[in-house]
Specification:
The chain has 429 residues and is α/β, with parallel strands linked by helices. The protein has three domains: 5-108, Rossmann fold (3-Layer(aba) Sandwich); 117-302, HUPs (Rossmann fold), CATH 3.40.50; 321-416, GMP Synthetase, Chain A, domain 3 (2-Layer Sandwich), CATH 3.30.300. The chain is 37% helix and 20% strand. The protein is built from 14 helices and 16 strands. Helix 5 (117-132) packs across helix 6 (145-158), helix 5 packs across helix 11 and helix 6 (145-158) packs across helix 11. Keywords: ATP-binding, Glutamine amidotransferase, GMP biosynthesis, Ligase, Nucleotide-binding, Purine biosynthesis. Catalyzes the synthesis of GMP from XMP. InterPro entries: Class_I_gatase-like (IPR029062), GMP_synth_C (IPR001674), GMPS_ATP_PPase_dom (IPR025777), NAD/GMP_synthase (IPR022310), Rossmann-like_a/b/a_fold (IPR014729). This is GMP synthase (glutamine-hydrolyzing). ATP binds at residues 142-148.
Length: 429
């Protein structure tokens, strides 16, 4: 590793990710490790220049007081405590916190501000080549940000030793499968297996209206398709994954409770026949996007909006039908096009359309028309735990309404969802 490192030891604080991100924002690489790390484990980490002990309000977890070992306190690199037991009371003001961190990093530890994407990519290429050797890697390429960046990084590191499998389950947005094929198959010359499984998925989903059941069917069927494709390949011993740092942190540590379990962290079968390759596992989401941009991926992939795992399957409310699914896809494409033209792309966190399984009476060409409504949703959020509604100019809403009702078959109304989270959730299902 070319970067200097600051190690944050977790003593029960919920602010570990915040401190790690603040350190990285200053151009210094940081990692979070458990409080009971041994001296040997600490010494094995590359280029450690300083240690921060972060216990938050206290160092008590499940009624037991915890601390690091005496060897950590006596380590050859500087150690800073930032909780009530430490030598440095931690400022609440962000500017003061940054200045205290800056003084510790650059004055006390003497680190270099060499944490950047170019160095990260160079390090990961070296590590991937060392891990994989002349082996072969298989990657499920959904077209989402994380899997796309992993694919680009693996292609740069090992080229044709990587095989990407893109499963089109029919629930992606307009143009996304074609973009995956164009970018990775044509432009990046990857070994790309494209699987058209649209009929297979939609047949499985026919008549299923419960959202959780839809999610389970989509997830299970995806695994089956991927496993079938994997069996067709020979000599593959590595599995690439788009695991990122929040996945690991949210899945729980020795001192912090689980926020939510992630399938790619501890959820894989014990008898997995593959060794995992996870080059992004120490990156936060914004850093993943920066990595993708540095690797030359198009902005439409790098800055792709958050998209649910079941895709449009949970925006076609109730039992999915092919015609209503196409209404979701077409109306969503119009919304995204008009937001981009109005300069809202990148300024609004997430925006999409929903088509419920109801019809209302309308008039088309002078005749009664029983057709669906389309619901528009646009929200802003920092952490997706709460969300506020974007105030869309009325003229833009009128333009989007006119386009959707004239261009999308079977739609005669457009509604705008004004509900924040809470009480609503961001998605409808």
């Amino acid at each position: 590793m070319k970067q200097d490192m600051i190690v944050v030891l977790d003593l029960g604080s919920e602010e570990n990710p915040k401190i790690a991100r603040e350190i990285r924002a200053l151009g210094v690489y940081s990692e979070i490790h458990p409080h009971d790390i041994t001296k040997a484990e600490l010494d094995a980490l590359p280029n450690v220049k300083g240690i921060i002990l972060n216990g938050g309000k206290n160092r008590v977890v499940d009624g037991v007081e915890i601390d690091v070992s005496d060897e950590v306190y006596a380590h050859s690199v500087p150690v800073l405590s930032v909780d009530h037991k430490g030598s440095a009371p931690w400022p609440q003001d962000d500017d003061a916190r940054t200045e205290k961190l800056r003084a510790f990093l650059f004055d006390t530890c003497g680190v270099q501000a060499n944490w950047n994407m170019e160095n990260f990519i160079a390090d990961q290429i070296e590590l991937i080549r060392r891990q994989v050797g002349d082996g072969k890697v298989l990657l499920a390429l959904s077209g989402g940000v994380d899997s796309s960046v992993v694919a680009a990084l693996l292609i740069k590191a090992i080229g044709k030793q990587l095989t990407c499998v893109h499963v089109n389950h029919g629930l992606l947005r307009q143009g996304e499968p074609e973009q995956v094929v164009r970018v990775f198959g044509d432009e990046m010359d990857a070994n790309l297996v494209y699987v058209d499984a649209v009929d297979r998925f939609l047949d499985k989903l026919a008549g299923v209206s419960d959202p959780e059941q839809k999610r389970k069917i989509i997830g299970a069927e995806f695994i089956r398709v991927f496993e079938e494709e994997a069996r067709k390949l020979s000599g593959v011993s590595f599995l690439g994954q788009g695991t990122i740092y929040p996945d690991i942190i949210e899945s729980g540590t020795k001192t912090v409770k689980v926020v939510k379990s992630h399938h790619n962290v501890g959820g894989l079968p014990e008898d997995l026949d593959f060794e995992l390759v996870e080059p992004l596992k120490m990156l936060f989401k914004d850093e993943v996007r920066a990595c993708g941009a540095a690797l030359g991926l198009p902005d439409s992939m790098v800055y792709r909006q958050p998209f649910p795992g079941p895709g449009l399957g949970v925006r076609c409310l109730g039992a999915i039908t092919r015609d209503r699914l196409e209404a979701v896809r077409a109306s969503d494409a119009i919304l995204r096009e008009e937001f981009a033209a109005a300069g809202l792309e990148g300024k609004v966190w997430q925006y999409f359309t929903v088509v419920p399984d109801i019809k209302s009476v309308g008039v088309r060409e002078g005749k009664r028309a029983d057709e669906w409504p389309v619901i528009l949703r646009a929200v802003n959020t920092i952490d997706a735990m709460t969300a506020e509604i974007e105030e869309i100019p009325y003229a833009l809403l009128k333009k989007i309404t006119a386009r959707i009702t004239s261009e999308v078959p079977g739609v005669n109304r457009v509604l705008y969802d004004l509900t924040p989270k809470p009480t609503g959730t961001i998605e409808w299902e």
